[in-house]
Amino acid sequence: MQFFGGSDISPSPPAPTASGNNAHMIYVFNRNGVCLLYREWNRPLHTLNAQQDHKLMFGLLFSLKSLTAKMDPTSLDKGNLGVPQLPGQGCSFHSFRTNTYKLSFMETPSGMKIILITHPKTGDLRESLKYIVVNM
User: Fold this and answer.
1) What is the pLDDT of residue 76?
2) Which GO biological process annotations does it have (predicted)?
């Protein structure tokens, strides 16, 4: 995290190498929040049990989708925060980045949600997520 003075309190991990695997974790949820698939490749800390982790991840996505729809400058109908949305409703949320990871997200028309956690310097993964959906 960088502050206004430019000091780096918690530096990012080293940039990924061409030969390394940049993916840390993948989650696949159905429209009801049931985790259909979870795999991890690089997760040094395990602070929660799997069920709590899945519930928090699904809740995070639900909240982010609701927030981005509420903040959408192109929509006159803002709705209420916390109200479930149909797939494709509201503005599109694709990813966010912290100093230690990047979360990439895609939702299919059927409501299936695919989440890929990668190195923070990983680029746009929308095409990769589409490939995963098509080949599942």
Assistant:
1) 66
2) endoplasmic reticulum to Golgi vesicle-mediated transport
